[in-house]
Structures are given as structure tokens and as C-alpha cells.
Amino acid sequence: MTRILPVSGPEDPAIAEAAGLLRAGGLVAFPTETVYGLGADGLNPKAVARIYAAKGRPATNPVILHVADAASAQALVSRWSPEAQMLAERFWPGPLTLVLPASDTVPSIVRAGGPSVALRCPAHPVALALIRATGRPLAAPSANRSQHLSPTLAQHVASSLGEAVDLILDGGPTEAGLESTILDLSSGRPCVLRPGPIPPADLEVLVGPVDLWTGAVQAGDRQAAPGMAERHYAPRARLQLVAPGSGLRETLGETSGSVAYVALGTLPPLPPGVRGILLPLDADMVGARLYALLHELDDAGCERIFMERPPEDEAWLAVRDRLRRASAKERP
Ligand code: AMP
Ligand code: MG
98, 224, 124, 229: which is closest to 177 by C-alpha? Predict the structure, then answer.
């Protein structure tokens, strides 16, 4: 059985033990304010290689380095721009990842062979204490098998990665529930590569207009415009987005097996046998709850999930992005 240690806060002795494992090249899953991360010493290529193996992550998909402060980030880049400084001052610690030109100290495997490195200072007290105790930047992608749902509970990590991880620090449910906003500052105009808890408008206040990356990378491409395989963040159940309330009986009536309907704001009357789930019409609350809900439905053996399409405004950008990927068709 994978070892899971409860951790009560930054002073917990479990953190020193975890730091020892990390310095020795081990893998430790730990809570952040977004989702659980699968941590390794970010300056040790062999340890980082274990992350790729444990996740089944393609070598073309680079990993984010987690640092304790902006000074540690500066040591990992070849140019720390005034934009990076402003954004770090305003949003770190927090769910913002900055992509910057890498310095030679960053192993090639962390960058997936590319010229840039992604950096973030997480806001969770346990994550910060662990980075400090280890004394290294921690490579830490989400602690799940590649293309599967991100973990928002220690138990999700255990069931996705099992023995592949040396230790899981259990800090309870994560708060934001969706992965960080990724902003590329490495070339030209700033570009959001992955929407997340910090909306583009909040970034634009500081750095002017930002682009929003909308493509999807093809299998085999280095994910310089990253992490963005079309299908990602997906539950086992088939997820389909539907217009609220329209033609429900027709759509749901023809399905068989175990079916759930996820409504936003109000739950419409549902055909018998369909499990109804009501989420508030609030983007942050849905973001915080989404992965845990999809995990629950998977664990309950649900085969099909119909979920109401969220509103089109910017507040829902990150939730819409994850739902689009979670409902994308599997590539053959
Ligand atoms: P996760 O598995 O949720 O931690 O995903 C990490 C994300 O950061 C992935 O989408 C990566 O492709 C992206 N990323 C990491 N490093 C870089 C980089 N150097 N340039 C662009 N994107 C990056
Ligand atoms: Mg991930």
C-alpha cells in the first residue's frame, strides 16, 4: 500500500520526512491550493524522469517547477522581466504559472527539451514548507495518470498512481480545484496558455493586452503551447455538454445504464433513473467542486454524465476549458 501521511500544517514532522525522500530522488505527492502535485527534485533529471514514468506522461509535455519565492524563480531563468516581477509581486504565492526563458541550471527533461521553463509559487502552507525544507525547486505536475482527472483529495492520488509514488502528504481537499493559470512571457505578447483561477482581465491590469491560446497540440509535438492535448482532464464516464433544460427527455430518454445530469443553478425535472446533481451558478464554486464530483461519479460506476454548458462570460473561462477537454472524443 502507498503510504499516506496526514499533515496538519507547515510545522508537521511529516514535511521533514518528505523533504528527505525528495532530496534522495523520491516522489512525494503534496497538496497545493489548486490540485495535488506529484513532486520530485526539479534539478535532478533522474527524479523528474520518475514523474514521467509514474504518470505515463509524454516526454513532449514539460513540467512546472514550484518555488518558495520570486528570488528562487529568478535563479532559474535567463531573463526576469519587469512584467514577471509585477505579476509575481501581485499574484505569488498563488495559482499563476509564468513561462520564461530558462537558465542552464534547469534540466532539459523539465523543459521537454525546449528553451523555456514554467514557474509557480504555490499558496498552500504545506507546499511552501515542503519546498523550503527540500531546498530545491520541486517539479510537480498534477498527481494523476496522464490524461486522467486531476486529484483534489489524497485518496484520488492513491487510486490513480498507487505504488508509483513513495509518499502522499494528505492535507485535505484542495481549495481552487482547477489547475493554475499559465501565462507565457517568453516571447512577444503575453499569452495565456491555460486558463485557470486567475482570469486574463486581472493579468491585463498589470501587463496590458494578453492573448489567449486556443489551439490544441497534436500527439508528438513538444507542448510549447502546452499541456494542451485536446482530450485531458477526463473522467472514465462519457461526458457530454448540453444546453440547459432543452430536449432533456429526448436526450436522456434514449440512454441506458447509469446516467447523471449535472445542472447549474436549478435542477429541471428528470426522467426516472437519472441521478440529478445541482451545482450553484458560480464559476469559482463549480471550479472547486468539479473534479471531486467527476471522481465521485466515476467511483459510483456512472457511465454517462450530461452536464449543462456553463455561461459564455470570462468568469467561466477555466471551467469551460476543462469541460471541453473532458468531453473531447478519445483519439484512436
Ligand atoms: P500539470 O500536469 O497540470 O502540472 O500541467 C503542467 C502544464 O504546464 C502543462 O500543460 C505543461 O505543458 C505546461 N508547461 C510546463 N512547462 C512549460 C514550458 N516550459 N512552456 C510552456 N508550457 C509549459
Ligand atoms: Mg495534469
Answer: 124
Domain holding 259, by residue range, is: 238-326
CATH number (domain holding residue 169) = 3.90.870.10
Residue of minimum CA distance from atom 2 in ligand 1 = 141
The one-letter code for the residue type at 298 is D
Residues 37 and 178 reside in one and the same domain: yes
Tell me which of 193, 218, 228, 230 to substitute to probe ligand 1's pocket, judged by most ligand atoms within 8 Å of the beta carbon. 193
Q: How many domains, in total, are found in the chain? A: 2
Q: In sequence order, what are the beta bridge partners of 139?
A: 40, 65
How many CA atoms, within 13 angstroms, populate the side-chain half-sphere of residue 51? 31
Does any ligand 1 atom lie closer than 6 A to the CB of residue 183? no
The pLDDT tens digits of the residues spanning 45-102 come to 999 999 999 999 999 999 999 999 999 999 999 999 999 999 999 999 999 999 999 9
In a domain, 137, yes or no: yes
CA angle 26/169/119 to nearest 5° reads 65
Flag whether 220 is in a domain: no
pLDDT band at 215 (very low <50, low <70, confident <90, very high): low
Same domain, 205 and 287: no
Rounded to the nearest angstrom, the distance between the alpha carbon of 100 and the centre of ligand 2 is 20
Question: How much is the pTM?
Answer: 0.92
C-beta of 179 in contact with ligand 1 (< 6 A): yes
